[in-house]
Design the sequence.
């Protein structure tokens, strides 16, 4: 490590998946791979933060060669590899080599509240929990195996509201809020989750652990849609890639940088511009004395 590197706090990259690191339709990350590899060569942690389930992210994480923590189901839980940090920290459970911070409502409770909304409104909208894996595969274009992973939800429910009339859809979303749930829209599907759950809260929890380890960090976040707003608000440098139609999501965030390029192509351009120093690079580094426990 060079002297210049020791004078700067480490950087953490937090990224959305579908429509950002992954192409929204093909789910390929090939255009982003050179920039991803450069981050890994420089030892920059890459935290995946997605609406995807643990069952979906684990094989993807392996394919990408990423060994850092990850965030599932719009902030429902943070998975930290055992021994990743040099200290013990409170967590809710352990799962196959991970310490898990659970931030979301259990899936069964979310489903119960959704059912109450259905009865209240008399609207028979469906979620992934109402579908077979074959039906999910047909709707999403996923393989049968991938559809099964997408159905393995623990902290949020994927809702199919796109076919409802606009007014009826609005009534459903309002009723979900009255039931103590929040909702988000990921570009294709709506998601229902606990009222206090979002990507930003999970990102902040994880960054607290990185700060405890390093004293200070600089965080870069990448997203493409409305449901990434909490993530982008939680980081030092928020980067927004273009949607498939070439536009940017209408977000109003301090310091937001809109990057040309759709999905993984925009991701590559954003990361390479940052690595070249063309974007705000790091916060001023003030060395802090870590408290001894």
Sequence:
């Amino acid at each position: 490590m060079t002297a210049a590197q020791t004078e700067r706090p480490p950087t953490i990259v937090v990224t959305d998946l579908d429509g950002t690191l992954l192409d929204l339709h093909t789910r390929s990350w090939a255009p982003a791979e050179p920039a991803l590899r450069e981050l890994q060569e420089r030892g920059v942690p890459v935290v995946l933060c997605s609406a995807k389930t643990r069952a979906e992210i684990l094989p993807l994480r392996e394919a990408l060669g990423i060994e850092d923590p990850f965030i599932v189901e719009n902030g429902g839980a943070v998975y930290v590899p055992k021994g990743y940090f040099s200290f013990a920290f409170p967590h809710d459970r352990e799962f196959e080599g991970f310490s898990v911070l659970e931030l979301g409502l259990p899936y069964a409770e979310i489903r119960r509240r959704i059912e109450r909304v259905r009865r209240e409104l008399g609207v028979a909208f469906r979620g992934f929990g109402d579908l077979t894996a074959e039906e999910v595969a047909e709707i999403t274009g996923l393989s049968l195996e991938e559809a099964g992973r997408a159905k393995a939800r623990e902290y949020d429910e994927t809702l199919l509201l796109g076919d409802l009339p606009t007014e009826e859809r609005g009534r459903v979303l309002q009723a979900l809020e009255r039931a103590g749930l929040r909702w988000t829209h990921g570009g294709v599907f709506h998601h229902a989750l606990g009222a206090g759950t979002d990507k930003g809260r999970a990102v902040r929890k994880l960054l607290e652990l990185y700060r405890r380890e390093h004293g200070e960090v600089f965080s870069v976040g990448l997203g493409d849609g409305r449901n990434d707003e909490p993530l982008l608000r939680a980081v030092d440098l928020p980067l927004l890639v273009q949607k498939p139609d070439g536009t940017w999501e209408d977000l109003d965030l301090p310091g937001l940088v809109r990057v040309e390029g759709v999905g993984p192509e925009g991701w590559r351009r954003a990361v390479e511009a940052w690595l070249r120093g063309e974007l705000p690079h790091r916060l001023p580094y003030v060395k802090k004395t870590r408290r001894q426990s």
In short: Residues 1-7, 283-293 have pLDDT under 50 and may be disordered. The chain is about 35% helix and 20% strand.
